[in-house]
Design brief:
Structural class: alpha/beta
Number of domains: 1
Order of helices and strands: EHEEHEHEEEEEEEEH
Helix content: 10-25%
CATH superfamily: Class I glutamine amidotransferase (GATase) domain
Shape: globular
Distance between the termini: 20 Å
Oligomer: single chain
CATH topology: Rossmann fold
Number of strands: 12
Bound molecules: glutamine
Length: 193
């Protein structure tokens, strides 16, 4: 099993380290052709508008083809890339998961926050690092909510797609990545375990 990490910009290296710690073969994806080699993809945090610029139209279309058919996990800017609708300001999303997100929803003053929230994954509550985080304003009926902050979903799953508005790659807690790896092994969303 090979997991790709989109390595155009942002904190892709933290995901690589986490995956290597979990004994996974990692491919740093810099060219669309590399999407052919991988079984699942992680889109890291960074600036979603910069991802769009660096991808261009053709790159976006190839990414969209992948994320709408194969297991994908997006954190923060990565979650924005996976959304159906993006606001503040509006920009395109791949629509891989039925969520509407608001970029930088917690204001630019508070750049980063660490909070502990209840989480549906085995082991319960989780420490979550937020950096200029988006907020999920709306999640469709097919979206499973695995954790919330102030009533808004922060960890969601729909089919083969997992999205977090926080950065699980920046803590020592490997549960979110392990959940994604399980989804890749199952070829789709499985049980909560
Ligand atoms: N503010 C960024 C965006 O809107 C996301 C921040 C992050 O990924 N840490 O794309």
């Amino acid at each position: 099993m090979k997991i790709g990490v989109l390595a155009l910009q942002g904190d892709f290296d933290a995901h690589r380290e986490m995956l290597e710690r979990l004994g996974v073969d990692v491919v740093m994806v810099r060219k669309p052709a590399q999407l052919q080699e991988i079984d699942g993809l992680i889109i890291p945090g960074g600036e979603s508008s910069t991802f769009l610029k660096l991808l261009g139209e053709a790159g976006f279309d190839e990414l969209k083809r992948f994320v709408t058919s194969k297991p994908t996990f997006g954190t923060c800017a990565g979650a924005i890339m996976l959304a159906r609708e993006v606001e503040n300001p509006a920009q395109k999303g791949t629509g891989a998961i039925d969520i509407r997100v608001r970029r930088n929803a917690y204001g630019r003053q508070i750049e980063s926050t660490i909070l502990t929230s209840e989480c549906e994954l085995p082991g319960g509550e989780m420490e979550m690092v937020y950096i200029r985080a988006p907020r999920i304003e709306e999640a469709g009926p097919g979206v499973e909510v695995l954790a919330k902050r102030d009533g808004h979903p922060v960890l969601v799953r729909q089919g083969k797609v997992l999205a977090a508005t926080f950065h699980p790659e920046l803590t020592g807690d490997t549960r979110v990545h392990e959940t994604f790896l399980k989804m890749v092994r199952n070829g789709a969303a499985g049980e909560k375990a």
